[in-house]
Amino acid sequence: MPLLEPEPSALRPAGRPGTPSPDRVTEDRADGTPEPLRGDLIALLGADKVLTKISDLVRYASDASPYRFVPRVVVVPEDLDDVSAVLSYAQGRNREVVFRAAGTSLNGQAQGEDILVDVRRHWTGVEVLDDGERARIGPGTTVARANAALARHGRVLGPDPASAIACTVGGVVANNASGMTAGTTRNAYRTLASLTFVLPTGTVVDTAEPDADDRLAHAEPALCAGLMEIKAEIEADRELVARIRAKYAIKNTNGYRLDAFLDGATPVEILRGLMVGSEGTFGFISEVVFETLPLDRRVTAGLLFFPSLPAAAAAVPLFTEAGALAVELMDGNSLRASVSVEGVPADWAGLPKATTALLVEFRAPDESGQEAYEEAARGVLEGLELVSPVASVTNTFTRDAKTITGYWKARKAFVTAVGGARPSGTTLITEDFAVPPTRLAEACETLLELQTRHGFDAAVAGHAAHGNLHFLLAFDASRAADVERYAAFMDDFCRLTVERFDGSLKAEHATGRNIAPFLELEWGPRATELMWRTKRLIDPDGVLAPRIVLDRDPRAHLRGLKTIPRVEAIADPCIECGFCEPTCPSQDLTTTPRQRIVLRREMMRQPAGSRVEDGLLEAYGYDAVDSCAGDSTCKLACPVGIDTGALMKGFRHTRHSPREERAAALAARDFRAVEAAARLAVAAADRIGDRWMTAVTRAARKGVRPDLVPEWLSGIPGAAPRKMPDTARVGATAVYYPACVNRIFGSPGDVSLAQAVVAVSTRAGKPVWIPDDVAGTCCATIWHSKGYDAGNAVMANRIVEAAWGWTAGGKLPLVVDASSCTLGLAREVVPYLSADNRALHAELTVVDSLVWAADELLPHLTVRRTVGSAVLHPTCSMRHLGDEARLRAVAEACADEVVVPDDAGCCAFAGDRGMLHKELTESATRKEAAFVGSRPFDAHLSASRMCEVGMDHATGRGYHSVLLELERATRPGSLN
Q1: Is there a contact between 316 and 437 (Cβ–Cβ < 8 Å)?
Q2: Measuring CA to CA, which residue among 120, 37, 104 is closest to residue 71?
Q3: I need a surface site. Which of 25, 85, 484, 610 has the fewest CB within 10 A?
């Protein structure tokens, strides 16, 4: 064991409940996947595709639903051969298989108790066809990623779920998820051109193939005959045909799509329809081709406030008739909870409980169409009685993109914001139903009465234009009385929806575990039996996702409800929605932010010192703490701002020994010497060579600790010049602070970054001054990222005091030439400052060099030459600061073509973390690097030296600061 390896027990949770949770993972599961299952699947697929540790099984046991089931094994297939092999294995051994992609489904569809198959990691990609008219998409691709590719062609997918940043296309099709505007005409069932899927037998079907029916008839003759037999039976029953058509006149995802038997003429066409909304119970969808829709870019929207839920519901048909594409409803509880979402007016917290808002949006392809919609909207407004209970309410329509984005951010955060505001320790239930839109107001009144009768104070929102409402309930799943109260509510709610409104018990979230027992209530015995018969025909051995859609147990929806034990305060609001996962650099390497919290909660469920807890702790050090980049982009993706990166930094601090903390504080106090030594070491390494340095650092890592000693990577830049450029304080328009990383590591070419910043500032008539005493100072990010609190406090206070003096008490802006350091100085140092220094910090204006260049310099510079093309790597710090547009602006001044890869994300180099764990950067940048390597670029640009080094390592291309490129583009005379 390395000398300074921390004890796993240092992260053992404190303050756990007096008794273990009833739904804890039992001791017999502590060893992970049992034999022979483990050995069989490893032999079949290879060890790298089979996850067997108890920590792996636990982290996959939770999704966005209120259920939790621990799989026996997790498989990560790479291709169709792997999927077919797993299905063939399960067929012959009476095993069960569940497919999981994003895990954002709300009814437990992504959970299994045997073999769980992760079909996200290796199943991404978008191929735009016919200039965007169609798109071929991998099932693990998020809806947002697919739409990013289509937007360049003025097209968009029909389904638009609120979870688009996280949910995958495969999940959208498997659940027939729709969203704000899809209704019954733009959903997956209506806009799917073709799909490729694998049946439980391993047969692969591509519905686009001209001879697909012939192939299927040859491979599965009994299946083909059975499908046509059911089709004939349905069509012969006029009453049943009418019932089926009526059920799909409104939004409905409960049960199997029996209209597929009416819409499809052949077995393949029938299967194509049945796969939509089948929730993984009929096969694995490996590829989809969508017919896309026009992306009308002329948008007008308004957020309108009403005195009550029924009053708002009554206005919905008026806006629908006026041509609104979306009419979204949010009740008072939803509006008040959304104040936790960044950008939402704080005074919404004071809205009266009965207040309800409608978010109404019109979209048009051109100005005349937009004006016509706006005139119609004004006509509707004149007849409404709106309220303005708080100052921020305007009750007007706007074209302002920022305002409209804010409205939608609040609406899309419904589940997460309300869930985050729920009482600690409670489980969140999300219900989703539809009634005929003409009866929406009546349904709202009835729902409110029902909630009150059962003691729930639910939040209500939904796609009001389509008669589709969502509501959230919170209760304590560890208390039997609370579970029975929920059960009684569900019984009454389901009967009310079906018997009074003839509604859909699931409008767009699919049946799942919590509505399966009520399927026959809605559909009746005849249609329900046809669904059972279809399942037996396609999956006769019951291999795929049993109990997800069909379950005869009347209390099945109460089985597997998960408790939510309290964890660290920063993470406790988490509802495990998974919105954070696509942005996480370690998502394909170890764990995601959601999984880090899920594992922590399982530790809290366990009795102290259990074998399960020991197994979780043993893995948590690397899988959760060490492999977290600490970039905190999870906070940006989380609607309630949970910063799992900060939690992991806190755990790093917890693992430090007092000796480590003292050493880190000493390094901060003597940072001038540390900085000089580091620069000398880099200069020496440049002479010695990469091979020798790599060998030395690898040996040190083995002896000390991999998370303390960086590994030298080939291509690490040489040392920066010892002397800063000459500058004058007199006449300076800003103080220029070269970050310590740019004082240690050099830039490519003959001009240093400091020289470039000074030169372009002078050319623009905005000279800057570099203080003589910057050596020995730092933004403190070095200590902050590693959880060294004492050292962080030393350096944070030192740099703020120095900056206050340099800037004459904040009279001049402080320009910082590394985005991560800008973020550190502007925000991250604040909690570690003394009260006096916090006051000094408040007087500082910290400006990133990108902002300085884009806003202050570019208008005064003459561009003399450009490169043909440039690819950009926006850093995670730029995202936190909101500076990505400035990177593009400066790059567009320097290059004729500027490209930001659709898969650009955090490089995970994170200072030196990419040298501590190079596999983290390699995994985080895999997709971005693939794009960069797919074509030549004349320049590869970013604005943070270590991120540039990380991208150098990932792509084999040479990245440099966009400020260097700006200096080159504006340099007078010849470059020779």
Answers
A1: yes
A2: 37
A3: 484
Q: What is the residue type of 289?
A: V
Predicted confidence at residue 416, as pLDDT, reads 77
The span from the CA of 939 to the CA of 948, in Å, is 12
Hey, which residues does 472 pair with through a beta bridge? 430, 459
With tokens 């005349």, the residue in question is 368
Strand-pair partners of 298? 364
Structure tokens that stand for 920 in this block: 């983290």
Whether the bond between 34 and the residue before it is cis, its omega within 30 degrees of 0, is: no
Helices (H) and strands (E) in the chain, counts: 42, 26
Q: At what angle do helices 671-688 and 658-669 cross, to 10 degrees?
A: 90
Amino acid, single-letter form, for residue 869: S
Give the DSSP letter of residue 726: P
- Determine the Cα–Cα distance for residues 809 and 382; give it in Å rounded to an integer: 54
**Angle between helical axes of 80-91 and 37-45 (0-180°, round to 10):** 150
CB atoms within 10 A of CB 639: 26
Total count of residues recorded for the chain: 976
Percent of the chain residues past pLDDT 70, beyond the cut? 99
Q: What is the DSSP string of 426-473?
A: -EEEEEEEE--GGGHHHHHHHHHHHHHHTT---EEEEEGGGTEEEEEE
CA–CA dist 107, 63 (Å, integer): 9
Task: Give the Cα separation of 274 and 276 in Å (integer).
Answer: 5
Least confident of 15-29, 496-510, 884-898, 926-940: 15-29
Confidence of residue 92 (pLDDT cuts 50, 70, 90): confident
| Number of Cβ within a 10 Å radius of residue 734 | 19
Q: Are 577 and 594 in contact (CB under 8 A)?
A: yes
Orientation angle between helical segments 221-236 and 238-247, nearest 10 degrees? 100
Task: Confirm whether pTM is higher than 0.70.
Answer: yes
**End-to-end CA distance of the chain, in Å?**
55
Confidence at 948, pLDDT banded by 50, 70, 90: very high
Return all residues near 460 (Cβ < 8 A) that are at least 6 apart: 309, 329, 330, 331, 333, 334, 444, 447, 448, 469, 470, 471
3-state secondary structure 616-628: HHHHHHHHHHHCC
Measuring CA to CA, which residue among 681, 661, 670 is closest to residue 777? Answer: 670
Q: Looking up tokens 């170890």, which residue turns up? A: 590
Tens of pLDDT, residues 318-370: 999 999 999 999 999 889 988 888 888 999 999 999 999 999 999 999 999 99
Confidence of residue 758 (pLDDT cuts 50, 70, 90): very high
What would the two tokens of residue 700 be? 């040190």
Distance CA 831, CA 829 (A): 6
Task: Give pLDDT, residue 780.
Answer: 93
Q: For residue 100, what are its two tokens?
A: 């999981």
Three-class SS of residue 242?
helix
Would you state the structure tokens that stand for residue 304, as one six-digit string? 């309108």
